[in-house]
Amino acid sequence: MDTNPEAKVILQHEQRRVESKSRWQKICLITGWFTAFMFFIITITLVGRQQKRNNIPSNTATVDTTVPVSPIVLTTNEPSSSPSPEPTISPTMTNMPSSNPTRSASPSSIPSVSYPPTSYPSAFPSAAPFTLFTYGESLYTDPNLGIQISDGLTAKLIARSKSRVTFANGGRSSSVYHMYMDGAGVTTLPDGGYVYVSNSEDDNGKAGVHGLYFNKDGEITDYKILLSGTTWNCGGGLSPWNTWVSCEEQDGGQCWQVEPDPNKPNHNAPQVTLLGGNGGNYESVAVDNTYTDKPVFFTTEDNSSGELRRFEADGNGWDALHVGGQTTYLQFLDGNRFQWTTSLSAGRNSAARYYPNLEGIAYHNSTLYFVSKVTKRLYILNLTDKTYTSERTGSSWVGQGAFNSQPDQIIGNDMDKRKFIYFTEDGGKGPGVHVRDRQGRYYTMVRGVPGGRYSGDETVGIAFSPDRKKFYFGFQDAGVLIEVTRNDGQVFN
Known about the structure:
By secondary structure, this protein is mainly beta. The protein has helices at 5-54, 344-354; strands at 139-142, 147-150, 153-160, 164-166, 172-176, 181-188, 194-200, 207-214, 220-230, 233-238, 244-253, 255-258, 271-272, 280-288, 296-301, 309-312, 326-333, 337-341, 358-364, 367-372, 377-382, 387-392, 406-413, 420-426, 432-436, 442-448, 459-464, 471-475, 480-486.
């Protein structure tokens, strides 16, 4: 029997220390396993929520998630990016303009859309520094509008054909919103408001131009007719003096100047310009205002041999489009070079050979951009050294969506920094609005659900509010005009 009390105390103390250490190790082990288990559960939950958010409802078409890693291979009926003196195979074309859409007494059935507009998902603008928005990384479906739109954007219906427009004060327009909306632009007003100016591509003198008026807060306050009695008003363009030029796409059609500002003397006096010469199937207009006393206007024509026209005005302001000026025509040469010629026949031959049936056009910083719906190509002209390049629209794709049908209207945005070009699309199972960045990569901003209510329709009327926080577009046959904003409240790229 151990009779040493001091040794006994030391032994008991050591036993308690060992037991305490063992208990602590067990606690640490249990805590570690519990933490790992909770991390696993949270991870699974978050992944499930993200997958649920990205899933397309079962009653809609599945989003195309294929991301090509190389440009689309062109078929042999597409001209090369550097046309040779004798193209391998010329695009199929006729001696007549492309067929105009068949117009029935009423448009195709209007989609079932909740009104007032939806705001799905909710948006909470912030005052955070500007963040570059990336389109098309993921598309979500808005079932009310029948569209698939880039995550981070919200869309709402603001007008539809054959229905009166609802104003911010609760009132309604005296006339219904026009049918067959097409090209559009935004002009500013002195009080900070603006006008969404929209063409009507109706037939037999039933077309024209209409203005949707907004206050400085982006709220709708009025709707009125600005031009009537014309036919097939397709595209157009803005002038440096804040007017709208509307182009008729019919044999003998003309380009009309329209003044949206009610306080200007020409507000109720639209006038034929000199841009269209003796008439044609005109589409769109862009302007180079580098020299303000000699602005240069470029006009496209939707015809198998429709020349691209260049009009150098003799002044600035309303009268500059009605008096004086000189017209020349684009002519492509060997070696990806071009010139401006006074020969109309040379301009038409060049168009028939290289760029038939032109549509949208845009200008920025000595560079001219335009598209042909027959070749499905974007042409880029360097106006300084008179050389050009071209590419298949949608050839270098990023993210979800696709751009396989005919390119139509185009506009530029944030061109000084990032050179974003926005395109509308004519036809296909899910026509959309697509974006090209300065590296030549294409993205889908928004499109109709493939195979849905907008199948075979065309997107039209792309334009930005003056502060670039609102984007407008529509579907022509369905007759719906939609407003898009960023959820973070920032400006568009």
